[in-house]
Design brief:
With 224 residues, this protein is of the alpha+beta class. It has one domain: NADH Oxidase (3-Layer(aba) Sandwich), CATH 3.40.109. 40% of the residues lie in helices and 17% in strands. The strands form 2 sheets. Strands 1, 2, 3, 6 and 7 form a 5-stranded antiparallel beta sheet that branches. A two-stranded antiparallel sheet has the order 4-5. Strand 4 and strand 5 form a beta hairpin. It is globular and about 55 Å long. It starts with a helix and ends with a helix.
Length: 224
Amino acid sequence: MSQSQLEPPFVPLAFERLAPEQMLARARAWREELAHRRSVRHFAPDPLPEGLLEECLLAAGSAPSGAHRQPWTFVVVRDAELKRRIRLAAEEEERKLYTERISDEWREALAPLGTDANKPFLEIAPALIVVFRRAHELEDGQKRTNYYTQESVGLACGFLLAALHHAGLASLTHTPSPMAFLSELLERPDNERPFLLIPVGYPAAGCEVPNLRRKVLNEITVWR
């Protein structure tokens, strides 16, 4: 008997309808909490509490996905030598990006952030979460298509970043280009493609971030 025959196809939705004032208070508190999240490039090497990343990854795994395929793999790297190898490979690609591949317009856009090809945070951060997108699955020798994988994995990454921030951790979305070296170093199968590299940890003492302005509501929203 298959799993679908053992379990009911639908179950009651666990949902509590809140009072309007409670809904607004929760929405405002969550918005204010997320407003304090910043991309951090200066980490302390301090180890993370046991079980913390597991909870955040489970939160990420609850994201919606096309046809419920859940086309993501999260590889957590804590080994110092492996982090060093990832840094060296990432910096090699980044040097090519900054010297050969980047346009003047792109370089100008990055200037306020103070970024360059040096990525020491890849070694210093206590953990790197490398997110892979599963283009398809192989089951009993058969290829099974995954749907809307870019959108699905993007949603999972958003859940993950929010969960890490809510748990009291700093993070960075790092996208060395190209990222094929991550598949090789982490020995991932052919059906997986690197999507995002997320250093995670505590900010270093005295950490500073760019003084950026976020767009206000009427700049990002259209009401019809």
